[in-house]
Write the structure tokens for this entry.
Amino acid sequence: MKCAIYKHGSMQCHALPVPVENRRSGQALVESLIVIFILSLFLFGLLQVAIAYNGRLILHHAAARAARSRAVGFNEWMALKAQRVASIPNSGEMIFPDFAPTGTSPLSNVTHPGETINLAFRLDAGISPRAAFERVRIPAYLDSDNHARAEYVLNYEEWERGAFSHSERSSALGRALTYEVAQEFPLKMPMMELIYPFGRRDEQGFRRISMAGEATAGRHSDLYLE
């Protein structure tokens, strides 16, 4: 604002015009934020679609493992254990045992970004501590006699929640069986409430979608079981 005092003692003030450069700068900032928001929605949505697609493949794999167990004559409990083990990648956090790695990553002591990248390329990835731990627990879980014992050998967040369900049906002549595994799959990527505002919301606030995988196997246990 610009003010002027005249000889007769009066004062008049006039607002100065906003420079064109400032207006353009503010407009560019708003446009950039809008573009970033739209790109974030697109990228998070694309990543969630990829995760869900991979989850559906895992359900098909779990159904195949369970169908194979039933095809050779194992009972429902044995098939359920095979299904659960095959669906571990979809099962969320391990809640029993309470696993906490004791070792530290070699990358944790490196402070320079360039050194971190160089060291990451030189390291042998090997197997993660959690995967090595699961390798020990999974055979013991498959050997458990009932659910009460099994949950104290290995248990996961989605198993405990009851997110998985299964069904089995036989062909008309009884020579084949089809095993289906379904899951209420959680959408955990950011901004999912804006991208997919449908479906049931769980106690953690995540939306869930219903997915299923199935597999068919020949029932040949009658050839060697009576």
